What we know:
Oligomer: homodimer
Helix content of chain A: 10-25%
Order of helices and strands of chain A: EEEEEEEHEEHHEEEHEHEHEH
Largest sheet of chain A: 10 strands, antiparallel
Low-confidence stretches of chain A: 20-33, 350-359
Distance between the termini of chain A: 51 Å
Amino acid sequence: MSELRHDPIQKRWVIIATGRSERPDSFSVEYADVGGEEDCPFCPGREHMTPPEIAAYREGDGGPDSEGWTVRVVPNKYPALRIEGELTRRGVGLYDQIAGIGAHEVVIEGPDHEGGIAGMDLAHATAVYHMLQERLRDLMLDGRFKYVLLFKNEGAPAGATLAHPHHQIIATPVTPKTVAMELNSAKEHYLRKERCLFCDIINQEIEAGDRVVTLTDHFVAFAPYASRSPFELFIAPRHHQHSFTDASPESLRGLAEIMQDVLGRLRNGLDHPPFNYVFHSSPNTDSEPKRPNHWATLKHDFHWHIEIVPRLTRMAGFEWGTGFYINPTPPEAAAQFLRTIDPRPGGKGSSLDEPTGRE
Amino acid sequence: MSELRHDPIQKRWVIIATGRSERPDSFSVEYADVGGEEDCPFCPGREHMTPPEIAAYREGDGGPDSEGWTVRVVPNKYPALRIEGELTRRGVGLYDQIAGIGAHEVVIEGPDHEGGIAGMDLAHATAVYHMLQERLRDLMLDGRFKYVLLFKNEGAPAGATLAHPHHQIIATPVTPKTVAMELNSAKEHYLRKERCLFCDIINQEIEAGDRVVTLTDHFVAFAPYASRSPFELFIAPRHHQHSFTDASPESLRGLAEIMQDVLGRLRNGLDHPPFNYVFHSSPNTDSEPKRPNHWATLKHDFHWHIEIVPRLTRMAGFEWGTGFYINPTPPEAAAQFLRTIDPRPGGKGSSLDEPTGRE
């Protein structure tokens, strides 16, 4: 059983796995090397190797945990938080603790052991985002969960332990600090200007253009002005929408399209970099206990988006301890470079093929 | 020339190196593999390979940039921020920017290419902390700098680019977000209770004891209740002191002693793990422009300390994007394990020598 602990200095929550072995090598299980195809539990025909499935899209008429699925959701075998139990809260002297209640699911993107979003056909990629939205909506019905995180780790340096393309979902009884900070900034901006902070930023970026990588009818992808790391990207719907749960089927298709585009550019331009991406959507306003008016303007001031962080640098040390980032690649240069790259599978990065004149 | 950019969503500052090459391979220079002894610019006899020295302790009577030093401070050859120039501030639409003014220094711990704090004699380790304090005091005299960061990266996975033992110093025209958060939490606690938050935590930890690794007359080292990562450690003076600049020579010796102890335990118990540590001291209250009363109670409510983070897990992905940490090793287990380790050079970790019964 794990627990959530609150740091009164940094005001952040941490999930502590208290029930695990106390040996210092005990965490190696979760951070093992990415496994090969021969024993991959996410490949078709090995459905028995995962816990019973939560949801799936199937083309044939097979039952749960049979082959023939295109997208499949299962509980994480080593969950950070568990779904069963009561949401107890207690004080420990100065500190605060919450029982490790939550959900931890894995969305297997397809039967192929390799590839992922950027290599699929558009309909399949759309189905992946459709499934993520469906799970988000379902988990939001549980009043114990304040927030539901959708994210993806690709490559071992980005924390992935299995190579088979998958997303993860963690539902938590608290709102993550980074999201809370965004909600507060957005609320502050809205109260002052009666405009969405994100809409303002999106409009300014589209007008300036020098940090934009891809612009479609419905979405924009740009390198943030204060990017923390090289080739960090921000993807958002161009028109105001506070929650990813509200995205229309057409919008999901547009999302799949732009994600295929930018992930393809990263793959081709930076030679399959490891990366993380995280959805920031609005929190579960139906969770208990309610805090009336805390983020009451939410429909107007928050704006869902995705942050992609390629893991190219060993930057997280000093930065991790101070919240102060040093980024050696200006976002304007990152965007300019990515715009030159062909995002299609097998498409080559134009600039990287030229001799660089450097060792 | 670099610049500081402010993110209006996360309210964090980022240093962007705008003057560097725009090629995507341009950041590889800074993140090159840790070099060997044969061409180490920090080894004695190669003083000409660094920029002219800023300060040094010498046993003989050699001049600056000659051999015979025991601790030596030089400007970083690839500084994140530059000392020359005016601290201009401007708006860029919604965004804020500050010129990349600051200081970036390297404190070479000693002539030995290997070893570092845990392997030195106590007097030498004390001299390293004495030098750090001296540089901190000096940089605080510059009214352009709001904050001076003292930190150490050890090992390539922790971001070190040179193996020769060294600390780094970065003086910034803004207070890093993590430090600002601590200052605010401490102030809030003080206004409510008229007690220092850190003193309260330290007293509670010493009383509880289960997370304490080492307790000396002047210092305590413990694994924080809400540790973000396995074997994270917090080291602080037991008696209230708001700034590291105020530490007495006796206290510096005490600091060297406990740092040798805990770094020795990490080295012996976890097989030379890469790690980062960061000093959190109070900001430069003499910097301009002054914000009266903002952190006016500082002498009472802040309490300097050091945070050590061994880099054992590939955790920084999802966590990095959300501020939500998952720690597979409970701090009580980490502390219990480290207490069993002999911190002396060559001292072996008792438990790790036993068979674990795991693959």
